[in-house]
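Lab notes, practical 5.
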Amino acid sequence: MSDRASLLVALAERLLLADGAMGTQLQRAGLPPGGCGEAWNVDYPERVLAIQSAYVAAGSDCLITNTFGASRIMLERHGEGERVAEINEAGARVARAAFGGRAGFVLGDIGPFGGLMEPYGEITRAAVERAFREQARALVAGGVDAILVETQTALEEIELAIAAAREAGAPVVIGSFAFDKMLDYDEVRTMMGVSPERAAEFLAAEGADIAALNCGTGVDMRMAADVVRRYRATVDLPVMAQPNAGQPELIQMQVVYRETPEEMVAGLPELVAAGARIVGGCCGSTPDHIRRFREALDRLARERTFA
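Output from the prediction step:
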């Protein structure tokens, strides 16, 4: 496992390439609709390893663990609640193994708990806090280089997850919000109404080391670049950006994303120019998308060297 400084030092020296989608790749590997992909870390680790090894072969510097829905609250919906520690630790180990002994950063993934806390929902704050603490401890025990709290929309939830990651001793903490394009004008907010500026301010105040954005509805590469600029105008934190490969469509009961690697990579120079230090793809992106990102990042690096 890298020490706390290594990921942040790397970001100061060079752009890093993250991976792409996991969920759609698991579906292609045979995960049935509604299945628990996180359990594959233990039950079918070779399938998860194959996906993550493909991202490494495509050029990823960072791999996100297959633990997006691996909090106890989420796993209990699949009858897997008693395997929280096992699933998360295995997820960290599989991602590390995918690098094959090469240098790379493993980002332990904590996704939303999948509901609303009281008073808006039925799940207590204490239950969410316990679930995040348990998951964060397991990821750190598995040897992650950072914890990525992603696809967040509510300040109250990300606050608990960041605190859990810090308490568990995560070397680096990344907080990532999912923004949606507003229907009537060219603006974005999270589902709970949080603006990019408020999100960035909150992440800095809560002690996150990296401010990030991922997923979201209607947020393409151009709009992701705009969010990166707004983050950087608000706080002095490195920024990570992982947009979707277009918008989802339901085709024969399968969620499909149609943005090609060529279409997606066309927006990468603007994303980099906006100041993103880690770039990658979220839903629908594939090793082919990441390979094109790698080629483009290497080309940009050469152009800067000889400029």
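Observations recorded by the TA: The chain has one domain: 4-306. The chain has a mean pLDDT of 94.
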